[in-house]
User: Which sequence fits this backbone?
C-alpha cells in the first residue's frame, strides 16, 4: 500500500489512540435511519447463531477482552459503530453470520486487515463486524501455478509463504494489509510491471452474497460478477478465499535505496522523475513530503525510495540517476531478497505504521505526469498545514510511480477497475490526533491539494480517485469510471446481487 509513508511515521514515532465503543451487551437496539430496527439480545446470538458456527469460530460482545482489538482499525477516522464481532473460521461461518444479520435486521461489515479509511465506513450503526482474520489458508497448487489464499491472509504472510517455494504473486507493499481487501479495488505494488494489479491475478474466488448464498466466481462461473468483483468487489460480496496466479521469482534479488532531498531541490527532482522511462524492473519510485526533525521541524523534506529487480550492474544506473541530483542524505544501496524488502522500507507487519488506532486520511488523484509547479504549490500548502497546525506534523504527501507494463497489458474493459490510464498516484495524507476540528482541517487541506494537482494535470483529464485510497467524497465516476457503460453495468450487477444494498459501507455504488 504505502512505502516511505511508513518510514516517515516510524521516524516521527507512532501515534496510539484507542477508541472505546459503548454498547449494551444485553440489547443491540436500532439506532437511526432504519438501521438495525430489531432488538437483538446476546442470548439470541447464542441461541440462533452460535450453534451454526464451527467450533473454532467465536462471537465477541463489548465486554469481551478481545473486542477492542477486533474493532480498532488502521485509521481512527473510519471506526464506524460496531456492537458485536463474529470471527468465522470457515466459509460456511461467514454465510451463517450474514444470514443471521439479515434475519435480525442488523447491518454487517466484513473486515480483513482493517485498513480502509473511506468516510463511508462511518455510516454503519450498531453493526455486526465479520472479522476474517482466522481465514488463513495458504495452499499452493500441485502444478505450482496458483495459490489458494484465505480472506484473512495478509501480504506479509503471502510473500513469505510463497518465497519459501521460490514463488511470488502480485501484492501490495504494506505487510499488514490483507491480500484480498486491496485486490477488490485494484492493488498497487512493486510487481505491477511484471504481473499487473493484484486483481489481475485472481483466477477464481468464493464469495458470500448479500443473502448469505455461497457463490463460486470465475471467468466461467458467474462471469458477470467476476468482472465486477475485480475493481468494485466491496459492493457485491465477502470473499472468503481466492486462487491467485503465482510465478517464479523474476529475479532473486532486489536493489533498494532511499534519498533525502531538501525543499529547494523539488523542481529538479520531479523533472528528473518525469523524464525517466520506467522499466518493469524499476518496480517502485516512491516519494513523500514529510517533516524530519533531524533537518527541520518546519521545512518539509522529500524522501525518495526506489526498488529495482535485477543484477547490480542493471540497477546501478538508476541509483546514479537520482544520486547525481546531490541528495542531502541517502541510504546505502542494498541487495535484498523478496522477503527483506518490506522490513527495509519500514513496511513490515511489525512496523510502527501498522498499528491501528491512528488517524489517517487519504485524498488521492491519478495523474499522467507531474506538473512541477503544482507540486511546488502542494509543498507550500503542506508547509502551511504543519506550521499553523502542529498536530499535523506526521502528515505526508505521497507520489507513487509504479512500473505500468503489466497494468497496461490488460484490456481496460475486462475488469471493473476503471483507471488504467493513470500512470501516477498522488495523495495528500493528513495524520493527526482525532477530533472533529482536526477532521475539518484535514478535509480543507486535502481537497485544496487535490484541486491544485488536478488543475495542473494534463488538460482535459477527469478527476480520478483510486478506490482503495478514496476519501468518500469523490464522485462515482472518479472512482468507477466515466464511460457510461461502466456505471450502467455496475448498477445492473448491484440490482441483481445486492438489491437491498447490504454492502454499502465502502465507496458504495448508488
Assistant:
Amino acid at each position: 500500500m504505502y512505502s516511505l509513508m511508513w518510514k516517515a511515521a516510524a521516524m516521527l514515532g507512532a501515534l496510539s489512540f484507542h477508541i472505546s465503543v459503548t454498547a449494551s451487551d444485553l440489547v443491540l437496539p436500532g439506532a437511526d435511519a432504519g438501521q438495525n430496527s430489531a432488538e437483538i439480545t446476546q442470548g439470541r446470538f447464542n441461541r440462533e447463531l452460535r450453534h451454526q458456527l464451527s467450533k473454532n469460530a467465536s462471537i465477541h460482545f463489548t465486554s469481551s477482552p478481545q473486542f477492542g482489538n477486533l474493532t480498532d482499525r488502521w485509521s481512527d477516522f473510519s471506526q464506524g459503530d460496531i456492537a458485536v464481532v463474529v470471527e468465522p473460521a470457515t466459509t460456511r461461518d461467514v454465510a451463517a453470520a450474514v444470514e443471521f444479520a439479515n434475519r435480525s435486521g442488523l447491518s454487517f461489515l466484513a473486515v480483513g486487515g482493517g485498513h480502509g479509511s473511506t468516510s463511508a465506513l462511518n455510516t454503519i450503526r450498531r453493526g455486526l463486524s465479520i472479522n476474517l482474520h482466522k481465514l488463513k489458508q495458504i495452499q499452493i497448487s500441485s502444478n505450482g501455478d496458483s495459490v489458494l489464499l484465505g480472506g484473512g491472509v495478509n501480504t506479509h504472510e503471502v510473500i513469505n509463504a510463497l518465497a519459501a517455494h521460490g514463488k511470488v504473486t502480485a501484492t501490495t507493499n504494506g505487510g499488514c494489509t490483507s491480500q484480498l481487501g486491496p485486490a477488490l479495488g485494484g492493488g498497487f505494488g512493486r510487481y505491477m510491471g511484471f504481473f499487473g494489479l493484484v486483481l489481475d491475478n485472481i483466477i477464481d474466488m468464493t464469495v458470500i452474497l448479500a443473502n448469505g448464498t455461497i457463490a463460486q466466481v470465475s471467468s466461467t462461473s458467474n462471469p458477470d460478477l467476476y468482472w465486477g468483483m475485480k475493481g468494485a468487489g466491496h459492493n457485491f460480496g465477502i470473499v472468503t478465499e481466492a486462487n491467485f496466479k503465482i510465478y517464479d521469482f523474476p529475479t532473486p534479488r532486489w536493489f533498494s535505496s532511499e534519498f533525502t532531498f531538501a525543499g529547494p531541490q523539488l523542481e529538479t527532482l520531479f523533472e528528473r522523475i518525469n523524464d525517466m522511462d520506467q522499466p518493469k524492473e524499476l518496480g517502485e519510485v516512491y516519494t513523500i513530503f514529510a517533516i524530519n526533525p533531524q533537518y527541520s521541524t518546519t521545512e518539509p523534506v522529500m524522501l525518495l525510495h526506489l526498488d529495482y529487480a535485477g543484477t547490480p550492474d542493471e540497477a546501478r544506473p538508476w541509483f546514479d540517476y537520482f544520486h547525481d541530483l546531490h541528495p542531502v542524505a541517502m541510504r546505502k544501496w542494498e541487495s535484498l531478497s523478496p522477503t527483506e524488502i518490506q522490513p527495509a522500507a519500514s513496511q513490515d507487519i511489525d512496523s510502527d505504521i501498522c498499528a491501528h488506532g491512528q488517524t489517517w486520511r487519504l485524498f488521492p488523484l491519478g495523474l499522467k505526469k507531474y506538473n512541477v509547479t503544482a507540486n511546488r504549490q502542494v509543498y507550500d500548502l503542506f508547509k502551511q498545514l504543519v506550521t499553523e497546525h502542529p498536530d499535523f506534523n506526521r502528515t505526508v504527501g505521497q507520489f507513487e510511480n509504479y512500473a505500468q507494463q503489466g497494468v497496461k497489458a490488460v484490456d481496460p474493459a475486462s475488469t471493473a477497475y476503471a483507471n488504467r490510464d493513470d500512470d501516477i498516484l498522488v495523495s495528500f495524507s493528513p495524520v493527526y490526533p482525532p477530533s472533529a476540528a482536526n477532521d475539518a482541517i484535514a478535509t480543507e487541506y486535502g481537497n485544496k491539494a487535490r484541486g491544485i494537482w488536478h488543475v495542473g494535470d494534463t488538460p482535459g483529464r477527469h478527476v480520478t480517485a483510486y478506490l482503495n485510497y478514496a476519501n468518500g467524497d469523490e464522485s462515482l465516476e472518479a472512482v468507477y469510471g466515466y464511460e457510461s457503460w461502466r456505471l450502467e453495468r455496475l448498477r445492473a450487477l448491484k440490482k441483481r446481487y445486492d438489491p437491498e444494498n447490504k454492502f454499502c459501507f465502502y465507496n458504495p455504488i448508488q
User: Anything to note?
Assistant: Confidence is low (pLDDT under 50) at residues 5-27, 29-38.
